[in-house]
Write a structure and sequence with these properties.
This protein is mainly α. The chain has a two-stranded parallel sheet.
């Protein structure tokens, strides 16, 4: 397989396992998948958790918010740690330590304990930053957008695959004689153990760069251009483009997290779907990560080939605008056919926007990829936090009022009133979110690159000039 002089892969030949970049691609994608699987592993069990622990509507929304809050801080820190210590050690420790609250949530007995565990489980969401950092330094500029988007997209599948996988794990646990009402506890413990084992795999089967590990390269005096003293963190914070991308990622990944986290209930309340049907629909949209995010990175690379770095930005703005439009229209429709159509459009475009974002990130400052990836990645969780707060402020209050106003009409009337109130409130929230995404698309157009940066992006040695994905050896 062709590589640059410093060992970076110039194509994504997925079956070339002897290549360190390809081996790293697979391991970091699987690690990311496991982290997302565990991060949102509790979601399919929420009705059981609510019943088991007696969560109120407000506590249920707080658990959603806390799940993304911890990730904000973890992503901000992990990027700088990657620049300093390398992705291999950072991922190893994140998996080993992050598995602890995943396991502990299986032992909680009170709502407070549950909320605390969800907060700390959110730290494993920082895995995204390490995955993007690791692929960025393993692949050449002509293919880095595609590699970043594919690893992130396939890793993101964990956030949807758990809707199918966790119930299957629970069913297997029940088959061994465990009671149905506590199967969710055993399932989370199993997910935590798997994450811990993956940490060991990452340590023994990957390395920081194509040329070796950071520690060894420093000893040999061959440390690549990632030294912490070359680019002060303060200078990264002063680059306005980093904060525009922070906003952009809030508008795509942040909105995906929130929309998918609330979509099960919305589909049931608005269109009358059963719990199983709604869950399967959301799972199918999440599974689009198999190709949609990759498409975003691929087209980012193609536009970059045609129009330079500016072309990457233009494609990002375009796909963001489409995403916002899809969600805005979806929020206003009550037709099942139209609703599904625009939800598919939203799902594809939001994932493509995520891929397109990280086809731009590696070119902002190549000496501080970790720090920038951490800040931009944190933007996704800030967006999810704010969007969840918006929906909670509308939905929790509306549901509580509906229950109070219909308390004398019986349980059935109360449930119907609660569903209708939640549907209306969340619909209005989705509309506002869609408008925010469109504004973020306009803001992305302010990202500019100097002539020197444009020239540098074309001068890095490479043997392949057109992005390629291949399964051949």
């Amino acid at each position: 397989m062709k590589t640059t002089p410093n060992g970076k892969a110039t194509s994504l030949q997925l079956l070339h396992f002897k290549s360190m970049p390809i081996r790293t691609f697979w391991i970091t994608s699987i690690a990311f998948f496991i982290c997302f699987f565990a991060w949102f592993g509790i979601v399919p069990f929420m009705p059981d958790v609510v019943k088991d622990l007696g969560l109120s509507p407000a506590q249920k929304w707080n658990s959603i918010i806390l799940a993304v809050t911890g990730t904000v801080f973890a992503r901000l820190v992990i990027g700088k740690l990657c620049d300093k210590y390398g992705p291999r050690l950072c991922y190893t420790y994140l998996l080993l330590l992050g598995a602890i609250p995943v396991i502990l949530i299986g032992f909680v007995q009170t709502p407070l304990q549950f909320l605390i565990c969800r907060l700390f489980i959110g730290f494993i969401g920082a895995s995204f930053v390490i995955t993007q950092f690791h692929t960025s330094i393993m692949f050449a500029p002509n293919i880095v957008g595609t590699a970043n988007a594919t690893s992130a997209g396939w890793g993101n599948l964990g956030g949807g695959a758990n809707r199918l996988g966790m119930p299957l794990i629970a069913a297997a646990v029940v088959s061994f004689g465990v009671a149905d009402e506590v199967a969710w506890r055993y399932s989370m413990i199993i997910a935590g153990v798997v994450a811990m084992l993956m940490g060991l795999v990452y340590y023994f089967f990957t390395q920081d760069t194509p040329e070796g590990n950071f520690a060894d390269l420093k000893k040999e005096g061959k440390m690549p251009m990632l030294k912490k003293d070359e680019v002060p963190f303060a200078s990264v914070l002063k680059d306005y483009r980093v904060w525009v991308l922070f906003l952009v990622y809030a508008a795509c990944f942040g909105m995906e997290l929130t929309v998918y986290g609330t979509m099960d209930d919305y589909l049931r309340n608005t269109f009358g779907f059963s719990r199983t049907t709604a869950g399967n629909l959301v799972l199918s949209f999440a599974l689009m990560n198999i190709f949609a995010r990759t498409l975003g990175g691929f087209f980012g690379d193609r536009f970059g080939k045609l129009k330079g770095l500016r072309g990457r930005v233009l494609f990002l703005a375009l796909i963001l605008a489409i995403e916002g439009t899809m969600l805005t229209v979806f929020s206003t429709t009550t037709s099942i056919a139209l609703g599904i159509l625009f939800l598919i459009g939203f799902s594809v475009s939001v994932q493509m926007a995520e891929g397109a974002t990280f086809s731009v990130v590696p070119f902002i400052n190549k000496k501080a990829i970790g720090s920038i990836s951490g800040i931009v990645g944190a933007g996704g969780n800030v967006g999810a936090f704010l969007a969840a707060m918006l929906l909670k402020s509308q939905s929790a209050v509306a549901e509580t009022n509906a229950l109070a106003n219909n308390a004398l009409l019986g349980d059935q009337a109360m449930k119907m009133a609660q569903s209708a109130a939640a549907s209306t409130a969340v619909s209005g929230g989705y509309f506002v979110i869609g408008l925010f995404v469109i504004l973020a698309a306009l803001a992305s157009l302010t990202i500019k690159f100097s002539t020197a940066e444009e020239r540098a992006s074309k001068q890095e040695p490479k043997q392949t000039t057109v992005p390629q994905m291949a399964f051949d050896k």
